[in-house]
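Lecture notes, part 5. Sequence design as translation. It can be helpful to think of inverse folding as translation between two languages: the language of shapes and the language of residues. The source text, in structure tokens, appears below.
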């Protein structure tokens, strides 16, 4: 049997499909083929894949690349969410609370009084006016814008500054007469011992039983051991004797003036001026306070008021008030005196019993400036 002749084939250069060597176009991809002439040409070895195989191979490579990429990201930790990082917080610093600082209360400043208006009369001079109003010549010159020679003319109206008040000592608490008497009383304490009696204790210190009971708030004369009693030595009974010689107490200190304040002004509306001072000590029956009030503006030195009182205040009567429009400057002081007999005219003679206080001043107007009398 004779073998049938084998038909030569060719490979499409575009898709790699086998076609007949005589074909002019690839039946798979439609690529035109060159016709072969004569003996068949030698072709090099070629690897050809069908289209499905090529697609499968590409898909395998893609899967392999995806797997490698995923494995690399897992190993390197790329894409993992970073965990929260702890941020150190600062410990707050405790600030110590400052203690409140006590603020000293400022002392009240006295309100300056307005200057006094004065009309120059004949023979007036700045030196005389300065001495009369207890101020300096320089203060008059500066207040009125005068030349340094301080020339004056009759009828000229001057503004006289008020005297500079003397600084006062710190105010002291004013005690009532009963409290002042109790504070001035010399007292000692005594502790009751065994077999003591109130009468024996009182007799030992020459005070009355009633005085001891009053100072200790007792309602009966019963005492007990260990009880502390206050003995008022100021209540000692007089010692009997044929001719007791009274002894004068030591000189009293200067009274501390309280009211009115230095430089205070009073007008026609004030019917009286009350002067008040602190008691120096309980006075004896023959002792008193002597108050002296002088009108400096009047100038003659004859307008003067002297009075003795046993209380720590004195009321200047309305009869001593000036009667003109010009405010008058009055000064006052207080001292302690002791009765020393009777003068020839029958009045009581007084002698000094202690130091004299400083001067204080106040002004008093007799009528309102500019007031017109009604007919």
């Amino acid at each position: 049997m004779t073998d049938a002749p084998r038909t030569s084939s060719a490979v499409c250069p575009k898709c790699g499909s086998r076609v007949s060597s005589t074909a002019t176009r690839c039946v798979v991809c439609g690529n035109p083929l060159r016709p072969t002439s004569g003996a068949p040409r030698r072709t090099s070895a070629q690897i050809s894949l069908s289209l499905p195989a090529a697609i499968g191979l590409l898909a395998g490579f893609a899967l392999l690349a995806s797997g490698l990429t995923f494995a690399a990201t897992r190993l390197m930790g790329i894409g993992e969410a970073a965990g929260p990082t702890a941020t150190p917080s600062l410990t707050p610093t405790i600030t110590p609370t400052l203690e409140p600082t006590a603020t000293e209360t400022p002392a009240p400043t006295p309100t300056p009084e307005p200057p006094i208006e004065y009309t120059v009369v004949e023979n007036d001079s700045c030196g005389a006016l300065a001495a009369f109003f207890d101020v300096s010549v320089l203060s008059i010159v500066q207040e009125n814008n005068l030349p340094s020679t301080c020339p004056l003319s009759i009828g000229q109206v001057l503004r006289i500054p008020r005297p500079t008040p003397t600084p006062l000592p710190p105010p002291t608490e004013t005690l009532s007469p009963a409290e002042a008497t109790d504070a001035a009383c010399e007292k000692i304490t005594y502790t009751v011992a065994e077999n003591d009696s109130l009468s024996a204790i009182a007799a030992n210190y020459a005070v009355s039983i009633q005085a001891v009971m009053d100072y200790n708030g007792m309602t009966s004369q019963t005492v007990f051991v260990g009880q502390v009693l206050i003995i008022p030595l100021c209540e000692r009974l007089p010692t009997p004797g044929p001719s007791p010689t009274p002894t004068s107490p030591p000189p009293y200190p200067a009274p501390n003036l309280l009211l009115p304040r230095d430089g205070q002004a009073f007008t026609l509306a004030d019917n009286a001026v009350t002067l008040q001072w602190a008691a120096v000590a309980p006075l004896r029956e023959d002792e008193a306070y002597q108050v002296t009030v002088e009108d400096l503006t009047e100038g003659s030195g004859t307008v003067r008021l002297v009075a003795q009182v046993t209380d720590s205040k004195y009321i200047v009567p309305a009869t001593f008030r000036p009667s003109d429009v010009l405010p008058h400057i009055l000064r006052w002081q207080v001292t302690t005196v002791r009765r020393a007999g009777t003068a020839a005219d029958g009045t009581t003679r007084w002698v000094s019993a202690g130091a004299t206080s400083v001067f204080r001043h106040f002004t008093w107007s007799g009528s309102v400036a500019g007031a017109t009398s009604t007919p």
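The translated text above is only one of many valid answers, since several sequences can fold into similar shapes. Confidence is low (pLDDT under 50) at residues 369-375.
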